[in-house]
Amino acid sequence: MENRLPSILGSIAALIISLSCPQLMWAQWEVGVYEIGSSSGNVTLYLQVPSAHLEAPLEMCLTFRNPTSLGITSQKCLQFSSDSSLFVLPLVAPLGKSRLFVDISNSQQGVLFETEVQLEVLASSDLALTDLLLSHRPFVAWETAYPLFSPISTEISKIFYGMEVNSAAAKDLSARIILYKKMTANTAQYADRFEASTQQNLLSNSVSNRHFFSGSIQVDTLSPGDYLLEALIYQEDQLMGEKSRFFTKKWEGAAWLAAHPDSALRWATPILPPTTRQSYEGMAKDELHQALMSWWEDRFGSEASTEYEAYYQRVMTVNKKFSERRAGWQTDRGKTWILFGKPDDIQEINRQGRKQIKWTYTKWPMVFWFEWNGDTYRKI
User: Fold this and answer.
1) Distance between CA 295 and CA 277 in Å, rounded?
2) Contact 28, 82 (CB under 8 A)
3) Is there a contact between 10 and 167 (Cβ–Cβ < 8 Å)?
4) Which of 97, 202, 247, 290 is disulfide-compatible with 211, CB 3.0–4.6 A?
5) pTM of the shown model
6) Residue 169: other Cβ atoms inside 10 A
7) Cβ–Cβ contacts within 10 Å for residue 249, how many?
8) Is 370 exposed, middle or buried (0-12, 13-18, 19+ CB in 10 A)?
9) Radius of gyration of the chain (CA)
10) Strand ranges (DSSP E) for 17-71?
């Protein structure tokens, strides 16, 4: 047994195991291990000694082993005798999970009793975290979680998340929830999309050392794709642990476009060469759809599906947002949105009685101005 092991702040899962000794069928030994202080690694071993062995010289060997490999972490053997049926021995348990093997013997009969106790000692920086749960419905109880079926359809406007944190030492816990979106279909890179919530205090139960947090995020405004929701657990400014969960937002426009290739052809006007567009006119529906898909594959290769969906998602967005006296994709704002995506900053300005809108893209960077002419916003 090491003389000094790292101090612990946490809980020890104490397990009392009662076994009948084969050599002493009329007696019972019992062992329990309990925590006696939250500011050190000290724990206490309690041994119930059968009356027949009171005041008799006994030997006890205590062996801490790795729970997986069973390799010895530390070992201690000692001679003792007890005039009470309850023998108490202070110990220092190793950090983390371990299995404590207890062997008691005497010189005449050999082994009288042996058992093991499984322990887990949590350091002050350790938190026991459940998986991050996602659900279509609010959490009525932590034991009852409605699973999130991914991909989620466009009819779902909000999803709910929740997680449980166990630690006796954890105080002033907070959670930061961040949502990331996968950048492209063929990479594992995720870009910071937006922060779903700021620092959030966890609801605590000091009796059971159980801490909970839950919340929700709007998904109806998310563009289709693969997302990663990450929960970061902090104690003051120190990161204590993290969990994450993937989900997919489904795009349901592909089937509609396949059934209406004439609309897909018309909406592709901003990027389709005029000669190519003319060659597609008059084709049957199935032939036109296949021709359009072939054009996207020739232009974008392995990224064709991703670029196809992203483009038509933008078209459908502007048709909802900017349809004035004409379809949204035909307006100046719609054309700009289709080609460059959603602007990073939008400002509405009244300049000498003229209504203007300023769009800023920080990635390139570019700025576009639009002015209301009484009928629509025209690019200036």
Assistant:
1) 11
2) no
3) yes
4) 202
5) 0.45
6) 19
7) 20
8) buried
9) 34
10) 17-20, 28-35, 42-48, 58-65
